[in-house]
Structures are given as C-alpha cells and as structure tokens.
Design a protein that fits this description.
Blueprint: H1 3-6, H2 17-35, H3 40-48, H4 51-74, H5 81-92, H6 99-105, H7 110-143, H8 159-183, H9 185-213, H10 215-246, H11 251-262, H12 266-273, H13 286-311, E1 315-316, E2 319-320
Antiparallel strand pairs: 1-2
C-alpha cells in the first residue's frame, strides 16, 4: 500500500457541527417529502403481491453488504482499512434520497420505489447498524494481520446511538409524513411536489458546499476514489438488476429495484461518520468519509445517466430498449 494511499486515512475533512446539523435536517426533510407520497394502500398492495418488495429488500440489506465485503477482499491491496469500512457503511445504508425521482425518470414503478424506500427506511433502524457492525468486524479481521494493522480503528460501535440517530433522521419524518398524508390527503396533494423539489435542492446544495470546502482534498484523491466508488456502484446496480432478473420481476419493477439498490443514502453514512458519539473524533477516518462523500455525488450522476437511457426512446447500438 503506497504512502499516498495511506495518507487518505489522515485527511481531516472540513465538516463542522453546524454542517452536520444542516445535513441531519436536510435528510429528515427529504424523507418527510418521500413519506407524503406513501399511502397505507401501498403497504396493502405489497402484502398481496410481495415478490418485488421481498427481492428489493433482499438485494438491499442482505446481498449488497455481502457482495461489498467480497469486493473489499478482491480490492484489499488497493484499499486502506477505513476506505473498506466506508464501502461497508454505504452498503449498509438504505436507498438514497433521490431514488424515487430517478425511478420516475427511468419509467420504473414509482409506487414500488416509494414503498421500497419506506420499507428500507424502517428496516434501516435495525439492519444498518447490525450490517455495519457485522461486516465491519469482518473487514477489521481481514486487515489486522497485515503491516497496516495499526491503522485499523477499534470498532466499538454503540448500536443504541446508531439506532437513535437513524430513527430521528429517518423514522420520525417518515412516520409523520405517512400520518399527514393519511389524515389530510387534500392538503398533502398541494404541498408534496414543492416539498420534494425543495428538499432535494437543499440536500444537493449541502453536499456541494461540503465538497467545495474540501475541494483540495478531493482534487488530490479523486483520481483514485473515483474508480473505487465507480466499481462499487456498478456492483450495487448489478445486484439489484440481476436479482430482479433471476426472479423474473417485470421490467418496470426491475428498474425500480435496480435504482433502489444502486442509489445509496450516503448522506446518512456521513451523518453517522461525523457523529462523535458513534465514531470518536480521535479516530482517523479520512478514507471512510471521502468514500461516503464521493458516493453522495457519484450516485446522482450515475442514477441520472441510467434514467436518461431507460427513460428515452432512442436505440442503442441498433437495439431498441424494451417497452414496459
């Protein structure tokens, strides 16, 4: 492992407590906007036709973390321990904040996308900390026998703090949005579109501002981080698409499952990384933070690219995309 690669772990990102609070509020606002589109009937529909939701859940919380760990093994000599932990943490998070919007552009099943977001958000309260604790320990075991063992941070995750953080940021806005939608449907119809647009703009702006504040760090490592996140994101998208294909999910549902699996809530990963009650400030987690931060930019680029292809009508190398 080169010295320049090891130096990634010693990078201290310029991310203040005020930035952390802003990101917390932005993610909560985004989830509230998503929840305003969730109807109780959606859960009833999933109950009577559960196959797409089960496949989506399996791809998100079981297959992706496992395959991410296998990818870490394959790329072990090109990763620092904290970069590997960053990949595992991103894989353990639920679907990203813009997945419903991208699914709509891609002509996927938006109802399934929103339902999967709801299910994943609720499940994340339990599965995100458990997945990270389990696979994170496997990563540390993988590296502890190498000469870089002294770089491996002690992984003593306070699961209660992770549960608490995720519930406050994801759970409360989700439950509030569903209740408001159920109790005041006419009012919800008036506010849902503006809130979703504003929330996505605010969230994106915070990520861009954070990137600008750490521009020099990213310029120095982007040539390397770019390929790591690209490979990881391709794996995530392929996981959703492959499982949906294996189980013969319909085209529209397959697209939504692919996007839900490949668009990760890296903003939540950053919130967890910069929470001093979960990861003490004295730990040098530069590689972990940069992986999560670049994921926040890249998955939107990749998602919009896929949506542009699936959502358009042009042919690609003479092959017309299948109609839904």
């Amino acid at each position: 492992m080169t010295e320049s690669l090891e130096a990634l772990d010693h990078i201290r990102l310029n991310f203040s407590s005020a930035s952390l609070h802003s990101l917390n509020i932005a993610i909560g606002f985004v989830m509230f906007g998503v929840a305003l589109e969730i109807k109780i009937q959606s859960f009833k529909d999933i109950f009577f036709s559960p196959k797409p939701a089960i496949v989506g859940f399996f791809a998100q919380f079981l297959a992706l973390p496992l395959l991410t760990f296998l990818l870490v093994i394959a790329l072990k000599d090109f990763l620092t321990p904290t970069m590997a932990l960053g990949m595992v943490l991103v894989a353990a998070c639920p679907g990203g904040n813009v997945s419903n919007f991208i699914s709509s552009l891609a002509k996927g099943n938006v109802a399934l996308s929103v339902s999967l977001t709801a299910i994943a958000t609720i499940a994340a309260v339990i599965f995100t900390p458990l997945n990270f604790a389990f696979w994170g320990k496997q990563v540390i075991s993988l590296y502890e026998h190498q000469a870089t063992a002294d770089m491996v941070p002690p992984l003593q995750i306070d699961l209660f703090q992770v549960f608490k953080t995720i519930f406050i940021i994801l759970g409360i806005p989700l439950i509030s949005g569903i209740i408001i939608n159920h109790k005041f449907p006419n009012f919800t119809k008036k506010i849902v579109k503006p809130i979703k647009k504003i929330s996505v703009v605010i969230f994106t702006a915070i990520i861009i501002i954070a990137l600008a504040k750490n521009f020099n760090h990213f310029i120095n490592v982007i040539y390397y981080i770019f390929f790591i996140v690209l490979i990881h994101n391709i794996l995530a998208l392929a996981t959703g698409f492959s499982l949906a294909s294996i189980f013969r999910i319909s085209e529209a549902n397959r697209r939504s499952i692919t996007i839900e699996t490949g668009i990760q809530n890296s903003g939540l990963a950053l919130v967890l990384i910069f929470n001093p009650k979960i990861f003490p400030p004295e730990l040098e987690l530069g590689g972990m933070a940069i992986i999560a931060a670049w994921w926040g930019i890249w998955h939107m680029i990749a998602g919009l690219g896929i949506a542009s292809y699936w959502g358009s009508s042009f042919t690609f190398f003479g092959l017309r995309k299948p109609k839904i």
